[in-house]
């Protein structure tokens, strides 16, 4: 994916972050609530690292 | 004689010049309109007081009566009053009278915005927290406190009793002015001690604790015109400013009210909302407690049954010393179920490699509990189901997508162990 500005990278990160935060429980089948939250945090951290790298 | 204040204060020469005058050659004065003579007169506070008491001057404008505080305590930075005190020499006051005094006082926009209002009478202190008066006119209820609860030490210290010097207008030996002046001095002393933290009260109810904290480190002033505020008598460190107009430290009632309001919203309202929310949730949880207890016991029972089943499958291997089965108690904390203790099964092979079967919890998305089977880096979930077997295997092969599942039976269980055994 190509971005034409820094703002777009940040916006893309914010969009994905919201998506992960609000993602439905069904995406985390057979996981406990704590595991779901930890998983979401891990994914967001990866997205953040990815966006930082792109910036 | 009726006089009408102009609410203008300035530096000038007092035209009344009583013996108590403080502006004979120049000082802080205010202009009052003498209605009868149609003249404007500059007068200092002591002369104004003197003429009110001795010459029968009557302040015509209602606003002055409303805007006057017998005692006020200003906040530490001296920018806003924290409490307004009205002293009245009336005992056994009726609730209607109390309400009338308060409602008249808070007609004044400044007084209505001060956090606390105290009506001090010889037998009862009526303390209001004025949190609701700004937005509507539903007057809050006063906290009535027996006067002697606060003032007894001061009365003793001054060898005062209510019959001879107190604070009662029944005393025949004293003129009403000196009686009320005595009472005012005692109340002022009491407030000064709170402000300077010399009066420490233990086991106070919450609202009084807040009141004490509010006026702590404040400055006590007597005879304050809340509108004009030119004649403050200052006690404490601020005494060097005696006689200075309070407008030198401009008081912005709106700012003060907003700060107070935000404090209220930030601490009181939210705290109340939080407390009420927690109480509601706790009540709901406690109501469901027996139900959750039952669910928890049933879950622990299912885990034990699972271990018994697995043990029966592995018993021949244990008998031949290929492995050993042991148990360990672990503690799990789950929403609604709380913290509880449950067994974990440990399969130890002859070379000391281990497989741990540890319950994760009952509250699992899409399942009726989960027990994790940890084998080195690999973890297979044993998922609780509603079908006859009650369990199934599950393994997440990638982060995305649904985990792979297959049936839980002796054959599959031993197949997993065989895969593990290959690595031994």
Describe the fold and architecture.
The complex is a heterodimer of chains A (55) and B (424). Chain A is mostly helical. Chain A is built from 2 helices and no strands. The longest helix of chain A is centred in the C-terminal third of the chain and has 22 residues, at 33-54. The model of chain A has no long low-confidence stretch (mean pLDDT 90). Chain B is α+β, with helices and mostly antiparallel strands and 424 residues long. Among the domains of chain B are: 65-226, no CATH class; 292-421. Helices cover 36% and strands 29% of the residues of chain B. In chain B, β10 (219-225) and β11 form a beta hairpin. The longest helix of chain B is centred in the C-terminal third of the chain and has 67 residues, at 253-319. Chains A and B meet through α2 of A and β14 of B.
Helix and strand run of chain B: EEEHEHEEHHEEEHHHEEHEEEEEEEH
Hey, which two chains have the biggest interface? A-B, 11 and 17 residues
What Rg of chain B, in angstroms, do the CA atoms define?
38 Å
Question: How many angstroms does the end-to-end distance of chain A come to?
Answer: 13 Å
Q: Please state roughly what percent of the residues of chain B sit in beta strands, choosing from under 5%, 5-15%, 15-25%, 25-35%, 35-45% or over 45%.
A: 25-35%
Uncertain segments of chain B of ≥5 residues (pLDDT<50)?
62-66, 132-136, 161-172, 228-253
Topology:
The complex is a heterodimer of chains A (55) and B (424).
Chain A: H1 6-21, H2 33-54
Helix pairs in contact in A: 1-2
Chain B: E1 2-12, E2 27-34, E3 39-43, H1 45-54, E4 58-59, H2 62-66, E5 68-74, E6 81-87, H3 95-105, H4 109-112, E7 116-120, E8 124-129, E9 143-146, H5 147-157, H6 176-195, H7 206-215, E10 219-225, E11 233-234, H8 253-319, E12 323-334, E13 338-349, E14 354-364, E15 367-375, E16 378-384, E17 391-395, E18 404-407, H9 410-422
Parallel strand pairs in B: 1-4, 6-7
Antiparallel strand pairs in B: 1-2, 2-3, 5-6, 5-10, 7-8, 8-9, 10-11, 12-13, 13-14, 14-15, 15-16, 16-17, 17-18
Helix pairs in contact in B: 5-6
